[in-house]
Amino acid sequence: GQTVLDIGCGTGVVARWLVRHTAGQNRIMGVDLNRYLLQEAMTLARKGGLEGAIEFREGSAEALPFPDNSFDVTMSVTVIEEVDAQQMLAEMARVTKPGGRVAVIARAVDMPFLMNVRLPPALQAKVDAPGVLGNVAERACADASLYQRLHQAGLTQVQMFPQLPAFDGSEPTMLQFMQGSLLARLTQEEGQQWQFARTQAEAEGTFFMTWPHHCAVGTKS
What we know:
There is one protein chain. The protein is α/β, with parallel strands linked by helices. Helices cover 35% and strands 24% of the residues. The strands form 2 sheets. It has a 7-stranded mixed sheet with strand order 3-2-1-4-5-9-6, with helices on both faces.
Protein backbone atom coordinates (compact mmCIF):
# COMPACT_ATOMS: atom_id res chain seq x y z
CA GLY A 1 0.00 0.00 0.00
CA GLN A 2 2.98 2.36 0.07
CA THR A 3 3.41 5.07 -2.56
CA VAL A 4 6.61 4.91 -4.60
CA LEU A 5 8.28 7.61 -6.72
CA ASP A 6 10.78 6.51 -9.39
CA ILE A 7 12.92 9.55 -10.27
CA GLY A 8 14.46 9.63 -13.74
CA CYS A 9 12.22 6.74 -14.74
CA GLY A 10 13.12 6.82 -18.44
CA THR A 11 11.03 4.27 -20.32
CA GLY A 12 9.59 2.95 -17.04
CA VAL A 13 11.52 -0.31 -16.77
CA VAL A 14 11.81 -0.15 -12.97
CA ALA A 15 8.28 1.20 -12.52
CA ARG A 16 6.79 -1.70 -14.53
CA TRP A 17 8.85 -4.20 -12.54
CA LEU A 18 7.61 -2.63 -9.29
CA VAL A 19 3.97 -2.93 -10.33
CA ARG A 20 4.40 -6.62 -11.10
CA HIS A 21 6.55 -7.24 -8.01
CA THR A 22 3.94 -5.68 -5.71
CA ALA A 23 0.97 -7.19 -7.60
CA GLY A 24 -0.39 -3.71 -8.25
CA GLN A 25 -0.91 -3.00 -4.53
CA ASN A 26 1.20 0.16 -4.56
CA ARG A 27 0.73 3.55 -6.19
CA ILE A 28 3.71 3.95 -8.52
CA MET A 29 4.73 7.33 -9.95
CA GLY A 30 7.49 7.85 -12.51
CA VAL A 31 9.02 11.24 -13.26
CA ASP A 32 11.51 12.21 -15.97
CA LEU A 33 12.66 15.30 -17.89
CA ASN A 34 12.65 13.57 -21.26
CA ARG A 35 9.24 13.80 -22.93
CA TYR A 36 10.11 11.19 -25.55
CA LEU A 37 11.08 8.63 -22.91
CA LEU A 38 7.92 9.39 -20.95
CA GLN A 39 5.84 8.78 -24.06
CA GLU A 40 7.62 5.45 -24.51
CA ALA A 41 7.00 4.64 -20.84
CA MET A 42 3.27 5.25 -21.20
CA THR A 43 3.11 3.21 -24.40
CA LEU A 44 4.97 0.27 -22.85
CA ALA A 45 2.78 0.38 -19.74
CA ARG A 46 -0.33 0.32 -21.90
CA LYS A 47 0.99 -2.58 -24.00
CA GLY A 48 1.83 -4.46 -20.82
CA GLY A 49 -1.68 -4.05 -19.47
CA LEU A 50 -0.41 -1.78 -16.68
CA GLU A 51 -2.21 1.39 -17.68
CA GLY A 52 -3.70 2.90 -14.56
CA ALA A 53 -1.24 1.10 -12.30
CA ILE A 54 1.55 3.62 -13.02
CA GLU A 55 1.37 7.37 -13.47
CA PHE A 56 4.08 9.23 -15.36
CA ARG A 57 4.84 12.92 -15.06
CA GLU A 58 7.37 15.31 -16.56
CA GLY A 59 9.71 16.84 -14.02
CA SER A 60 13.29 17.44 -12.89
CA ALA A 61 15.13 15.45 -10.22
CA GLU A 62 16.44 18.79 -8.96
CA ALA A 63 12.97 20.33 -8.60
CA LEU A 64 10.41 17.56 -8.12
CA PRO A 65 6.84 18.64 -9.00
CA PHE A 66 5.29 17.31 -5.79
CA PRO A 67 4.39 18.73 -2.36
CA ASP A 68 6.40 17.93 0.76
CA ASN A 69 5.82 14.50 2.34
CA SER A 70 4.11 12.98 -0.70
CA PHE A 71 5.62 9.48 -0.97
CA ASP A 72 6.53 6.56 1.29
CA VAL A 73 9.49 5.63 -0.92
CA THR A 74 11.50 7.78 -3.31
CA MET A 75 14.09 6.04 -5.44
CA SER A 76 16.40 6.63 -8.37
CA VAL A 77 18.53 4.31 -10.49
CA THR A 78 21.66 5.74 -12.17
CA VAL A 79 20.40 9.33 -12.18
CA ILE A 80 22.51 10.97 -9.48
CA GLU A 81 25.58 10.83 -11.76
CA GLU A 82 23.94 13.28 -14.16
CA VAL A 83 22.52 15.96 -11.83
CA ASP A 84 23.44 18.13 -8.87
CA ALA A 85 23.63 15.32 -6.32
CA GLN A 86 23.09 17.49 -3.25
CA GLN A 87 20.03 19.15 -4.75
CA MET A 88 18.55 15.86 -5.91
CA LEU A 89 18.93 14.23 -2.49
CA ALA A 90 17.42 17.30 -0.81
CA GLU A 91 14.42 17.05 -3.14
CA MET A 92 14.08 13.31 -2.57
CA ALA A 93 14.06 13.86 1.20
CA ARG A 94 11.59 16.75 0.88
CA VAL A 95 8.93 14.74 -0.95
CA THR A 96 9.36 11.66 1.26
CA LYS A 97 7.04 11.22 4.22
CA PRO A 98 8.52 11.08 7.74
CA GLY A 99 9.50 7.47 8.36
CA GLY A 100 9.70 6.87 4.61
CA ARG A 101 12.75 5.70 2.71
CA VAL A 102 15.07 7.21 0.11
CA ALA A 103 16.92 4.74 -2.14
CA VAL A 104 19.67 5.55 -4.63
CA ILE A 105 21.72 3.47 -7.06
CA ALA A 106 24.73 5.16 -8.68
CA ARG A 107 27.24 4.00 -11.26
CA ALA A 108 30.65 3.73 -9.55
CA VAL A 109 33.83 5.27 -10.94
CA ASP A 110 35.88 4.20 -7.90
CA MET A 111 35.29 0.43 -7.97
CA PRO A 112 37.02 -2.14 -10.21
CA PHE A 113 35.31 -3.61 -13.27
CA LEU A 114 36.03 -7.26 -12.52
CA MET A 115 36.08 -9.36 -15.69
CA ASN A 116 36.46 -13.11 -15.75
CA VAL A 117 39.11 -13.55 -18.42
CA ARG A 118 42.73 -14.75 -18.26
CA LEU A 119 45.16 -11.99 -19.20
CA PRO A 120 48.76 -11.05 -18.34
CA PRO A 121 48.78 -9.32 -14.91
CA ALA A 122 49.52 -5.82 -16.23
CA LEU A 123 46.76 -5.99 -18.82
CA GLN A 124 44.36 -7.59 -16.34
CA ALA A 125 44.92 -4.66 -13.97
CA LYS A 126 44.27 -2.20 -16.80
CA VAL A 127 41.09 -3.99 -17.85
CA ASP A 128 39.75 -4.24 -14.29
CA ALA A 129 40.70 -0.67 -13.31
CA PRO A 130 37.95 1.74 -12.18
CA GLY A 131 36.63 3.85 -15.02
CA VAL A 132 33.70 5.83 -16.35
CA LEU A 133 30.78 4.37 -18.29
CA GLY A 134 28.42 7.14 -19.33
CA ASN A 135 28.35 10.81 -18.39
CA VAL A 136 29.19 12.14 -14.93
CA ALA A 137 28.17 15.75 -14.35
CA GLU A 138 30.34 18.25 -12.47
CA ARG A 139 28.21 18.35 -9.30
CA ALA A 140 27.07 14.73 -9.57
CA CYS A 141 27.91 11.66 -7.50
CA ALA A 142 29.41 8.46 -8.89
CA ASP A 143 31.50 7.21 -5.99
CA ALA A 144 31.41 6.14 -2.35
CA SER A 145 30.63 9.71 -1.25
CA LEU A 146 27.01 8.64 -1.90
CA TYR A 147 26.86 7.15 1.60
CA GLN A 148 28.07 10.32 3.30
CA ARG A 149 25.72 12.41 1.14
CA LEU A 150 22.68 10.49 2.41
CA HIS A 151 23.68 11.32 5.99
CA GLN A 152 24.26 14.96 5.02
CA ALA A 153 20.75 15.04 3.54
CA GLY A 154 19.43 14.29 7.04
CA LEU A 155 18.62 10.62 6.44
CA THR A 156 19.10 8.03 9.18
CA GLN A 157 19.53 4.23 9.35
CA VAL A 158 21.54 4.42 6.14
CA GLN A 159 22.19 0.99 4.67
CA MET A 160 25.15 0.77 2.27
CA PHE A 161 25.69 -2.02 -0.21
CA PRO A 162 28.05 -1.62 -3.19
CA GLN A 163 27.19 -4.08 -5.94
CA LEU A 164 28.93 -5.77 -8.88
CA PRO A 165 26.18 -6.77 -11.35
CA ALA A 166 27.58 -9.36 -13.76
CA PHE A 167 26.70 -9.59 -17.45
CA ASP A 168 27.34 -12.55 -19.72
CA GLY A 169 26.42 -13.64 -23.23
CA SER A 170 22.72 -13.62 -22.40
CA GLU A 171 22.82 -9.79 -22.50
CA PRO A 172 24.72 -8.95 -25.71
CA THR A 173 23.63 -5.31 -25.85
CA MET A 174 25.11 -4.56 -22.43
CA LEU A 175 28.30 -6.47 -23.26
CA GLN A 176 28.71 -4.59 -26.53
CA PHE A 177 28.35 -1.24 -24.76
CA MET A 178 30.76 -2.17 -21.97
CA GLN A 179 33.32 -3.70 -24.31
CA GLY A 180 33.22 -0.63 -26.57
CA SER A 181 34.14 1.56 -23.61
CA LEU A 182 36.87 -0.85 -22.57
CA LEU A 183 38.50 -1.14 -26.00
CA ALA A 184 38.71 2.65 -26.24
CA ARG A 185 41.17 2.51 -23.30
CA LEU A 186 43.36 -0.22 -24.82
CA THR A 187 45.97 -0.27 -27.53
CA GLN A 188 45.28 -2.29 -30.66
CA GLU A 189 47.51 -5.11 -29.43
CA GLU A 190 45.89 -5.09 -25.99
CA GLY A 191 42.47 -5.14 -27.63
CA GLN A 192 43.40 -8.21 -29.61
CA GLN A 193 44.62 -9.94 -26.45
CA TRP A 194 41.33 -9.05 -24.75
CA GLN A 195 39.25 -10.38 -27.64
CA PHE A 196 41.19 -13.66 -27.64
CA ALA A 197 40.81 -14.03 -23.86
CA ARG A 198 37.09 -13.30 -24.08
CA THR A 199 36.61 -15.89 -26.84
CA GLN A 200 38.48 -18.45 -24.78
CA ALA A 201 36.44 -17.72 -21.64
CA GLU A 202 33.18 -17.89 -23.60
CA ALA A 203 34.18 -21.29 -25.01
CA GLU A 204 34.71 -22.47 -21.44
CA GLY A 205 31.37 -20.99 -20.34
CA THR A 206 33.04 -18.79 -17.70
CA PHE A 207 32.98 -15.32 -19.26
CA PHE A 208 31.35 -12.32 -17.57
CA MET A 209 31.92 -8.58 -17.15
CA THR A 210 30.84 -6.60 -14.11
CA TRP A 211 29.60 -3.02 -13.89
CA PRO A 212 30.05 -1.68 -10.33
CA HIS A 213 27.44 0.42 -8.56
CA HIS A 214 27.03 2.09 -5.19
CA CYS A 215 23.62 1.53 -3.58
CA ALA A 216 22.12 3.00 -0.43
CA VAL A 217 18.82 3.32 1.42
CA GLY A 218 18.11 5.86 4.17
CA THR A 219 15.12 6.74 6.33
CA LYS A 220 13.62 10.20 6.73
CA SER A 221 13.21 11.16 10.37
